[in-house]
Amino acid sequence: MNPLLNLALALTAAATSVAAPPPHAMSVVVRAERILIANEFVPRYLDLPKVLVVRAGETFTPPTDSTWDYIEVAGTLRIDRTRDTVLRFTHLFVLPGGVLDVGTTTDPIPANRHVELIVRDVPINIARDPFQWGNGLLNFNRQTRVGAAKTAWTTLTGDVAAGARELTLAADPQGWRVGDELLLPDTRQTAFPALPRREPSVTIVAIDGRTITLSKPLDFEHLALRDPDNRVVLLPRVANLTRNIVVRSEALGPETGTPGHTANVGEHATWDVRYNTLVGLGRTRAVPLDNTVLATGHIGTNQQGRYSDHQHHAQGFGSSSVGNVNQGSGRAKWGVVVHGTHDALIEDTIAVGFPGAGFVTEDGYEVRNIFRRNFAAYSVGNHTGAASIEEDNAKRFNNPGSAGAGFWFRGLKNVMDRNEAWNNAIGMNVFGLTQVEGHYPSVPGGEPDTTSNRLVDAPLQFTNNVTAANAVMGLEYWGAPKFRNEHHVSAFNGIIQFFHGLSDPTHPHMIDPLFVGSNGMSQCTSTATPYAASMTIDGGRIVGCRYGIGGAAAYVRIKGTELQNVTNILWPEFEAMASSYQEDVKFRAMPGLPPQNIVFGHNRVWSGVLPLPVTPQSTWIQQQGSQHRIKNWQGTGRDYRLFIKQQLASTPAWPSLDESQQQYNCPEDDLTMGQCWAKYGLAYGGAALTDAEAVPLEGLVAGFAAAGLDTPLGPPRAVITFPTSRAAAPIERQPDGTNGVAVYAMLTGESTGVSPVFRVSVDGGAPFDVGGDANRRRFVVRNLSEGSHEIRTWRLDAKLHAIESSLLTFRYAVGASPAKTRAQPR
Question: Is pTM beyond 0.70 here?
Answer without folding.
Answer: yes
